[in-house]
Specification:
homodimer, 200 residues, mainly alpha
Chain lengths: 200, 200
C-alpha cells in the first residue's frame, strides 16, 4: 500500500467510525453524508467521493460493526475446543459486551432490527443478511456440540439458536434499557438451565 | 360529559392516535407537534392547546399504547382461572399480537426501549415505568401459579418473567424483522419447554 492509498484508507475508516457513533447514538437512519461530514471536518462531497451514497455509508457501518463484533466475540471463542466450550464462551463474551455501555456500537444490529422493522430497502436487506450470517455461525457451533455428543442427538439447532438469541436480546433490553444490574446474572442462569435441558 | 367536552376528548384521541402511528412507523422521537398537526389538519398551536408539549404528547402515546396492549393481552386472559392458565393465555395472545404486522403500534414499548437505550429524560423514565408495571403484573401471575402449586415452590418468579420477556422480544425480532414464518412456532415450543422445566 503506497502512502496515498494508506491515507485514503485512513480517511475512509474515520468516516465510517464517525457514522457508527452517530448510528449507535441515534440509529442507522440518523446517518447522513452532511452529519458525518460535519463530524470529521470534510465537505459533504469529500465524504461522497470516499464512500459513495448515504446508503453505501449505512451499509459500511453495518459491515464494520460486524467485523468488530466477530473480533470481540467469535474469534477468541474459536481458540477453545469445538462445540459446547466455544458456545459457552460466545455466550459469556456476548453477554458482557451487551452490558458494556462504553461499547456504544454494541447494539447496532439489534437496535437496527427494531428501527428498520417494518421498512423495506437495501439497508434492511443488508442487515438481515449480516444477522443471518451470524446466526449461521451459531448454528454450526451448536451442530458441532451435537455431533460431539455434548448435546442430545435430537437437539433442534435452529430452536436452540433462537432461544440463545432471545436471551441476549432480552439481556440487552433489561441491562441497557431497564438498567437492571442483576440482568446478566439471570441470563447466565437461564443459559445454564437451557443447555442442561438439551443434555438431560 | 357535555357536547363540548366530548368533542375535545375526540380531538385529543385523534391527535394521540396520529402520534402513535408516527411512533410505530418511525419511533417515539419522530413525534413532533408540527408533524402531528399536519396529519390531523390542525395548527401546531391547536395541538399544543389540547395536549401540551411534545414530551406530553410522547408520554400520552406510551400511555395509550399501554391501554391498548392490556386490553388485547391482559384483560381477556384474566377471564381464565388464576395462575398458569392465565399465563399461557397471556403468552398466546402476546405472541400473536407481536406477529400481526397490521398492529403497527405493536412494538412501541420494545422498539422504544431500543430507541431510547442510552438516552436520559422524562420520556425514557415514563417508558421504563410502563414496562415495569407490565412486568409486575406478569410477576403476580407467576406468583399465583407458584402459590397454587402449578409451578415448583422454588421457582424464581423474576427469573421466569425475564425468560418469558426474552422469548417475546426474540419473537418480535425474528418474526417482524427477520420475517421468519416459523418463529412463532419455535417460541411456542420454547415456552412449553420452559414451563415444563419449572414443573419437573
Amino acid at each position: 500500500m503506497d502512502a496515498k492509498t494508506q491515507k485514503s484508507e485512513l480517511t475512509r475508516a474515520t468516516i465510517v467510525g464517525a457514522a457508527m457513533e452517530l448510528a449507535a447514538a441515534q440509529g442507522l437512519e440518523a446517518i447522513s453524508l452532511q452529519a458525518v461530514a460535519d463530524r470529521v471536518g470534510l465537505s459533504k462531497s469529500g465524504v461522497f467521493s470516499r464512500i459513495g451514497s448515504r446508503e453505501a455509508l449505512q451499509k459500511a457501518v453495518v459491515d464494520e460493526y460486524g467485523h468488530r463484533f466477530l473480533a470481540d466475540v467469535f474469534v477468541p471463542a474459536m481458540q477453545l475446543p469445538r462445540g459446547l466450550p466455544r458456545l459457552n464462551e460466545i455466550m459469556r463474551r456476548w453477554s458482557l459486551r451487551v452490558c458494556q455501555v462504553e461499547v456504544r456500537s454494541g447494539c447496532i444490529f439489534t437496535a437496527g432490527a427494531f428501527e428498520l422493522h417494518d421498512r423495506e430497502g437495501e439497508l434492511r436487506d443488508h442487515l438481515v443478511q449480516a444477522i443471518s450470517g451470524w446466526r449461521a455461525a451459531l448454528r454450526r457451533t451448536v451442530q458441532q456440540a451435537i455431533t460431539l455428543g455434548q448435546l442430545r442427538a435430537d437437539t433442534d439447532a435452529e430452536q436452540l439458536v433462537g432461544e440463545l438469541y432471545g436471551l441476549v436480546i432480552g439481556l440487552l433490553h433489561d441491562a441497557r434499557f431497564m438498567r437492571d444490574p442483576r440482568a446478566i446474572e439471570r441470563t447466565q442462569t437461564s443459559w445454564t438451565r437451557l443447555v442442561a435441558s438439551y443434555q438431560a
